[in-house]
Design brief:
single chain; mainly alpha; 69% helix; 75 residues; globular; 0% strand
């Protein structure tokens, strides 16, 4: 069984980084690590968070680093 509530964890951290005007490198590094940890805990709704932040290239890259891509979301 997946862990949909992980979205609230990811989304809050990502929003905080965006609000703080974190650099793209910091967002990609921090969120990439967080995505990996959440996936290990069976996060299965990553695509919803990706969709929420799809206009931020650094966040999209963090997802791609963890094998979650906008293209795969559409399939």
């Amino acid at each position: 069984m997946g862990w949909a509530s992980a979205n609230s964890i990811f989304d809050n951290v990502a929003t905080s980084l965006v609000d703080a005007n974190a650099s793209p490198e910091l967002k990609r590094s921090t969120l990439g690590r967080l995505i990996g940890i959440l996936q290990q805990e069976d996060w299965d709704t990553e695509d919803e968070s990706l969709d929420r932040f799809k206009d931020d290239p650094a966040i999209v890259a963090a997802f791609a680093d963890n094998d979650v891509n906008i293209d795969s979301e559409e399939n």
